[in-house]
Write a structure and sequence with these properties.
Layout lengths: L21 H7 L13 H6 L12 E3 L3 E4 L2 E4 L5 H10 L8 E6 L5 H13 L4 E7 L5 E7 L10 E6 L3 E6 L6 E3 L8 H12 L6 E6 L6 H10 L12 E4 L15
Parallel strand pairs: 1-4, 4-5, 7-10, 10-11
Antiparallel strand pairs: 1-2, 2-3, 5-6, 7-8, 8-9
Helix pairs in contact: 3-4, 5-6
Amino acid sequence: MEPGYARPPMKPSCRLLCPCVAALALLGCDRPDTPRASTRSASAATSTSRPASDPLPPVIRVGVRGCTVDDAEFDGVTLEWQGRAAAAIASKPHVAGERVAIDAARNARIPNVEAVLVALANAKATSALIRTPTVNGARGELTVTLNEDTIPACSVVVKAEPRFTFAVWRAGGGEEQVIARGKPGFDFRGAADALRRRAARCDSLVWVLAEEGSFPWSLLFDLATLATSDDAGPPLHPTELVLLTHAVARGERVPSGS
């Protein structure tokens, strides 16, 4: 459990091609009638279903210090890491026009996750499938929509704030509802209930997550997975999640294209 907030009440949900040595090849021809054992690796078996000319999508991982894109590491300590990571992501196949998977650690910093989402959006990806372990260690998944053109005014915004509070309001702006600190940290259940009540009064299929501070990624991930789970009650009406990557004040209007 990360320090500073309570767990939400959730259920566990190079292949190397070595050239043949001529001498060995000749030895292999000494017994033409002797059958040879045939071995086949899992990667070779997989290659029959995917053409060799079809490149694989990038493997993107986000952690405390930055991110990795395939074998390239981008250290968040350096000022230019986000630009270099974005350039690496944009150069990869199966990004533009597709949903791209990201493996984000629970203790990854939210700004690091946001930086990768911005890079994917700029590279014209349609969405990101963020895979993160749940509080019980099971595999969890969360899909975030990128380049959302329209956020209806009645869409619900949920923002995590310092002092362990959540603020909930409409994307069109207006009075916010504050979910006070729970015991001993954030009140995930209270925020999920407020989200559902407001979303039930709106036809929008979009809802918005935001944060203020440098919280671990697990904070937003746990809230989103609780809000969209069957444990929280009837199905949540909005099905597309937008994660704000810029600051927004309580009750402030969230423009489309955020």
